[in-house]
UniProtKB/TrEMBL annotation:
GO terms for biological process: DNA integration; DNA recombination. This is Recombinase XerD. It comes from Amycolatopsis coloradensis. The lineage of its organism: Bacteria, Bacillati, Actinomycetota, Actinomycetes, Pseudonocardiales. Residues 282-479 form the Tyr recombinase domain. GO terms for molecular function: DNA binding.
């Protein structure tokens, strides 16, 4: 064990003396068996550690208990000894700093860093924790260095997380002093804000309701994304040997799961309840094939119909549809290839790569979709001729009237306007893509085929989203299968047994 560290293990219980109520300590007879061996079902294991002395030379003895076995208690002592052992070649200041580090981790209950991380920091000349920047300073530095490497949407997300919550609530803490408790308090503040908004919206006072107009609550999934941003930034700090940070408290904050909501069909019963109460059963609602058909019938004369059709039939994402160029459309072979996306970032749109590696894919086209694309191509050619020199050529399947790329938000606006005119229950434009999956499932496709169509990176995402849709389509699929069998006699006309 390291020269500047010592420790020992022992066993204790909570039994007290019947006369004076004082702890029995090692005198409790239940701690050991008759043969002198430790009892396996009474008491728990403790350790006593003599940490390196403080800078002023004062001792610091620490005791911790609650371990199930002597091995567990000894393992903690060994971890501390390894850290001190790494520091000893670097001199007295390093040994004191490691003692401070261990003491801090024991007080907060946070796991100790590895000796490898500590060794790298000592090699870099860091032994004084006061060198650490504040959380705000690090977040600003880290984000500035990452900006150009991030997709536009991720950049916008990170930036808003840092600006709106992370720096205002955590920015003043020194980076190495940030704890799980500090971060948990920030998420508590988010939950309190949610409660305030919901209470105000439910108030009978119109002025109170007006005070929160346009304000949105933060969902469990959004809080998870805030934590992910902070965790990523702190992991980068741990990897930087110049910084005296060895632990990522964001990894240990407990939050609601923020699980992906299950897709539910707009069955007649759910539609009736929505009409009566205005409440959606789930954030992800999917039209039935009949409802999707009604929507497309209302949309058929709209200038953006080709994109709405492709999303509904072939499950394209909004950005994939808006960014689809004609050179990735093969009408002769009835297929399209997804190689790019036109993504909305705030109030602007920019071209980028597909969302993930799985998103770049070849999608087979049915005859109806091929006919729609063929007709749309001729209409677009007529618009190009009519516009003459005013036409702005971008080679995209669907554009603004002068050839400019279509703003993705305009497609969403058109979708909602058409759905309202068709008096359909509410879904998002993205849920029209879910409808394409529903159509495939109803036609008998398996989840692997649906995953490949939608470009999900994992079949687990597909399964999580559509497991609730499958049972609801089971009866419809069964009826479709039964209708294939030709029958000359109706079952109800058969003679009774």
């Amino acid at each position: 064990m390291a020269q500047n560290f010592s420790g020992s293990t022992y066993k204790r219980c909570t039994c007290k003396h019947p006369d004076n109520g004082k702890p029995l300590g090692s005198a409790c007879r239940k701690l050991k068996r008759r043969n002198g061996a430790w009892s396996s079902d009474h008491g728990s294991w403790y350790y006593q550690a003599e940490l390196p002395a403080r800078a002023d030379g004062s001792r610091r003895t620490r005791r911790r208990g609650g371990h199930e076995s002597q091995t567990d208690a000894q393992a903690e002592l060994d971890n501390m000894a390894a850290l001190v052992d790494v520091a000893e070649p670097y001199g007295a200041a390093a040994i004191v700093a490691i003692g401070d580090l261990i003491d801090k981790h024991l007080k907060t209950g946070e796991p100790l860093p590895s000796s490898g991380i500590i060794g790298a920091q000592l090699d870099a000349g860091i032994v004084d924790a006061s060198q650490a920047p504040t959380v705000g300073e690090w977040l600003t530095t880290w984000f500035a260095g990452r900006k150009k490497k991030l997709r536009g949407t991720t950049q916008l997300s990170y930036g808003s997380h840092i600006r709106l919550w992370l720096i205002p609530y955590l920015g003043h803490y020194r980076l190495d002093e940030l704890t799980v408790v500090h971060i948990s308090r920030m998420f508590d503040a988010m939950a309190e804000r949610n409660d305030t908004i919901l209470a105000a919206k439910a108030s009978d006072d119109p002025d109170i309701r007006k005070s929160v107009h346009g304000m949105r609550t933060l969902s469990d999934a959004t809080m998870q994304r805030y934590r992910a941003t902070l965790r990523t930034a702190l992991n980068a700090a741990i990897r930087d040997p110049r910084l005296p940070i060895t632990f990522n408290p964001a990894s240990y904050v407990e939050l609601p799961s923020g699980r992906r909501p299950k897709a539910l069909l707009w069955t007649p019963e759910r539609v009736e309840r929505w009409q009566r109460t205005g409440q959606k059963p789930s954030r992800v609602m999917v039209w039935t094939p009949d409802q999707t058909g009604r929507f497309l019938d209302h949309a058929i004369d709209h200038p953006y119909y080709v994109l709405l059709h492709l999303i509904a039939y072939r499950g394209l994402r909004r950005g994939e549809a808006c960014g689809l160029p004609w050179w990735d459309v093969d009408l002769a072979r009835h297929s399209i290839t997804i190689t790019a996306a036109l993504v909305q970032i705030g109030w602007r749109a920019e071209f980028g790569e597909p969302k993930s590696e799985a998103s770049g894919r070849v999608i087979a086209l049915d005859n109806d979709s091929t006919d729609v694309l063929t007709s749309h191509k001729q209409r677009q050619e007529n618009l190009r001729v009519a516009a003459g020199d005013a036409w702005i050529e971008n080679g995209l399947v669907c554009t603004e009237p002068d050839g400019r790329p279509l703003q993705p938000s305009h497609l969403s606006d058109a979708f909602h306007a058409i759905a309202d005119a068709a008096e359909l229950p509410p879904v998002r434009l993205h849920d029209l893509r879910h409808g394409a999956a529903t159509l495939m499932i109803a036609a008998g496709a398996d989840l692997k085929q649906v995953q490949e169509l939608l470009g999900h990176s994992s079949i687990a995402i597909t399964a999580d989203t559509y497991t609730h849709v499958l049972p609801e389509l089971a009866r419809e699929t069964a009826e479709a299968a039964a209708s294939i069998i030709p029958r000359r006699k109706n079952r109800n006309l058969l003679p009774a047994a």
